[in-house]
């Protein structure tokens, strides 16, 4: 993944966290945090390893 893409997804995650903080409805808060998590998965990879996100690889078990 290109650095510009990573920056975009990271900024989107921050925006979703900010929206979650100002939301008052529990379902909406949860929704924003879930979206933030998905954006962060795009940055760091679903396994939490940025190498996998950058290389487009998934760990093999």
Provide key terms for this protein:
61 residues, mainly alpha, 3 helices, 74% helix, 0% strand, disordered C terminus
At a glance:
The chain has 61 residues and is mainly α.
Please describe the topology of this protein.
Layout lengths: L2 H20 L3 H19 L5 H6 L6
Helix pairs in contact: 1-2
Provide a descriptive summary of the structure in words.
There is one protein chain. The chain has one domain. The longest helix is centred in the first third of the chain and has 20 residues, at 3-22. It starts with a helix and ends in a 6-residue tail after the last helix. It has helices at 3-22, 26-44, 50-55. With 61 residues, it is mostly helical.
Largest sheet: none
Mean pLDDT: 81
Helix content: over 70%
- Integer-rounded radius of gyration: 13 Å
Question: Total helix count?
Answer: 3
């Amino acid at each position: 993944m290109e650095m510009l893409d990573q920056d975009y997804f990271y900024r989107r995650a921050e925006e979703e966290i900010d929206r979650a903080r100002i939301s008052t409805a529990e379902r909406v808060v949860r929704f924003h945090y879930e979206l933030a998590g998905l954006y962060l998965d795009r940055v760091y990879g679903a396994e939490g390893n940025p190498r996998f996100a950058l290389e487009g690889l998934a760990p093999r078990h």
